[in-house]
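Researcher: Excuse me, C-alpha cells okay?
***
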Amino acid sequence: QVQVVESGGGLVQPGGSLRLSCAASGIIFRLNAMGWYRQAPGNQRELVAGVNSEDSIFYADSVKGRFTISRDAAKHTVFLQMNSLKPEDTAVYYCNADVSDYRSVRRDYWGQGTQVTVSA
C-alpha cells in the first residue's frame, strides 16, 4: 500500500506565496510521476503541475510563470512553490502519485488534500 501526505496549505493575501509539500511512502517499486491537482467548489479537479521520472514537467497555462514544481526523487517527495497568488487559485490542492508495483501494474494514489485560500 502507498500513502500520500500533503502539507503547506493556508490563507494568504493576493500576491503572496505558499509552498506545498507532498511525500509518498510505502511499497513503491517505481514512482512514475507525481503531480498537483486542484478543485474549487463547483469545478472539476484539474491538473496544475506534474513531473515524471525523467524530470519532464507540465504546467497548466493558468499557473505558468507563477508556480514551480520540483521533486526529490530519492525521498519520493514533490513540492509546489506558488508565487503571485490570485483569488482564483483558491481551491483544495491534491497530490497524486503514479506508482508501479513489482508486476508493472500502475495505480494512482491521492493525498487527502490541503486548502489554499487567497483572500484579502
About this structure: The first strand starts at residue 2 and ends at 7.
